[in-house]
Amino acid sequence: MTRIVRGRSIERRRAGAWLGLLALVTLGSIAYSGVLHAPFAFDDQRNLLENPAIRWQEVDLDSFRAAVFESPSNRPVANLTFALNYRVGGYEVSGYRLVNVVVHLLNALLVQFFARTTFRRVGGLGPNIAERAAWFAALLFLVHPLQVQSVTYVIQRMNSLSTFFYLSALLLYIRGREKPPGSARHIPYAGAVVSGLLALGCKQNAITLPVAVWLYEAFFFRDLDRAWMKRSAVRLAVPLVLVGGAIYSVLVYGPDLGYARRDFTLGERLLTQPRVVAAYAGLMAFPHPARLSLIHEVEVSTSLVEPLTTLLAILGLCAGVGFAVGWARSRPLLSFGVFWFMLQLVVESSVLPLEMMYEHRTYLPLVGVCLAFAHVWYSWIAKTPARVRVADGLAIVVTLALTLGTLERNRVWLTAESLWADALSKNPGSVRAQSNLGTALAMAGRFDESEGHQLAALAIAPDFFEAHMNLARLYLHQGRAGEAQRHLERALETRGADPEVLADLGAAFAQLGRSEEAAVAFETALDLAPDHRRSRYNYGLMLLGTNQFEEASRQLVEAARIEPGRPETHMFLARAFAGLGRRDEAIRQYQEVLRLVPQHGGARADLELLVREMPSRSSGDAPPVERPPQSTRSDTGAIPRR
């Protein structure tokens, strides 16, 4: 009889597991499938669209090395996944987002494993209720609206993928720890080390993993043995993170930690972050879409009472830590959740000169919060079989409400205009939101509105580099080269010699007919960055416009090498080769344009004209065709800048 009851219990748990998995996949797909085709945003520009290192034409050792060592961000594992995305589908955004959603689903599944394992060790819940609570924790993590920025924002795969390896490492450690003495513990331990290194290769805040392992060991294997905690903390976890973090900070940011380029000091950041951490906690508790934003402009704290909420936040966080210490034995999951939350924010909410606040930083901290909340939920409500059903029903209501919030938040990401309009509505004084909304409007052809937002940004911050650049590019697009020149010269005063500015300044001089000054600007840009594609491209167009076909072809060949697959580069390179009488090479370039854009009427017309005017010759000395190039518009980098 006992065997039959146990068998039925196992069958119920299996059915519950399949039901939970179905709910996870279904809700995750509903919450995120609508944004698969939303455009790239914000830092996707620098790390993906302007990153030649991930553009794998061939999967070989050189391509691998470029993605790992030459990408803007020093996060090689994540960069490799972006390179594979490019290899499969180029810059088709749905492929990148699909990978992000799959990673998020896998993370939710790891949260379920982590919660189930931990709830079993803590006790207090029966096996069936613990299973329910673990699935509730996973679903909370999956559909929480605060997660949108880590999933929908393509470049934040660095964050979610790091979490995948981080949780995998922790679970492997637990698996090894639970093995009896004398068994093959070294296998899961070795897997934990490898997963930890992969997590670090996705995002550097994975350096906290040793402390997370120590914290888990202390709570759930050592029963908070004070003597062991003191010995082990001094010997291992704390020194490792402190020393490693200090070395990394100095190597990456320099002796001043990079505060020279910030408009706040180290002391001001340390004073401000308690308010930011409190804000993160508030968003976790009440993640209404009206409270969420791509960016949060945070008032800098200059003293304990300026603003007064600084002191209140510090006192609140101290109280939270105090309660966690007090609850450590009576409510270990709740205490662990608080310490986990604090630990996972210690890198990005402490001394590093990062932006004050971003929602994607809550992705890993939310894991511990979901575990604690789900355990408390079922511990307090599910006292009897009838109340278990009440707990399940309320859990379903909460999960569906959060899913609706995620759907609503994801609608904001459908266009660049809606994303930045939302950010500006929630941060009216944000110079970044003003400028980026202006550029999004320019891309939509709403040039007057765009200009107004860029000027509004400069009214807030007269030296804001991005607004000067965006206005200059808008004016270049409209043929207002003189006005563009003024803003580019102001940008040079603000930033110093910069190939981005010089590439556009050369284009402005070219529009004004000042070829010698344009050439100087382009050459200076290429001295600073020989592989700067836009400088090569704009220089090539200027030379093409003055029938300097040989030099134009050299610059355009380099531009095509730096960033393959841009049809306009191949189009004008074809015209340069035609001007030199190099018929076969010109035909190959036109064919490449038509391969990339089969309906490109200009390339088709030029190719037909070339075949008629320049019959094939066996020798390479065909007379050049000196007809002026058409539509040689400079590349003004129209995608929004930060």
Written account of the structure:
The structure is a single chain. The chain is an all-alpha fold. It has a domain at 2-40 and 91-413. The chain has helices at residues 2-32, 44-49, 61-69, 76-89, 93-122, 127-143, 148-151, 157-178, 186-202, 209-220, 226-253, 266-285, 309-327, 332-345, 365-381, 385-411, 416-426, 431-443, 447-460, 465-477, 481-495, 499-511, 515-528, 533-545, 549-562, 567-579, 583-596, 601-613. The protein is elongated.
Key terms for this structure?
single chain; 642 residues; mainly alpha; disordered C terminus
Summarize the structure.
Helices cover 70% and strands 0% of the residues. The protein is mainly α and 642 residues long.
How large, in whole angstroms, is the Cα Rg?
29 Å
Bin the strand percentage. Answer: under 5%
How many helices?
28
* Mean of pLDDT: 88
Low-confidence stretches: 617-632, 638-642
Distance between the termini: 68 Å
Structural class: mainly alpha
Q: Sheet with the most strands?
A: none
Note the overall shape: elongated
Helix content: 55-70%
The sequence of SSEs as H and E is HHHHHHHHHHHHHHHHHHHHHHHHHHHH
Count of beta strands? 0
What's the SSE blueprint?
Layout: H1 2-32, H2 44-49, H3 61-69, H4 76-89, H5 93-122, H6 127-143, H7 148-151, H8 157-178, H9 186-202, H10 209-220, H11 226-253, H12 266-285, H13 309-327, H14 332-345, H15 365-381, H16 385-411, H17 416-426, H18 431-443, H19 447-460, H20 465-477, H21 481-495, H22 499-511, H23 515-528, H24 533-545, H25 549-562, H26 567-579, H27 583-596, H28 601-613
Helix pairs in contact: 1-5, 1-6, 1-16, 3-4, 4-9, 5-6, 5-8, 6-15, 6-16, 8-9, 10-11, 10-14, 12-13, 13-14, 14-15, 17-18, 18-19, 18-20, 19-20, 20-21, 20-22, 21-22, 22-23, 22-24, 23-24, 24-25, 24-26, 25-26, 26-27, 27-28
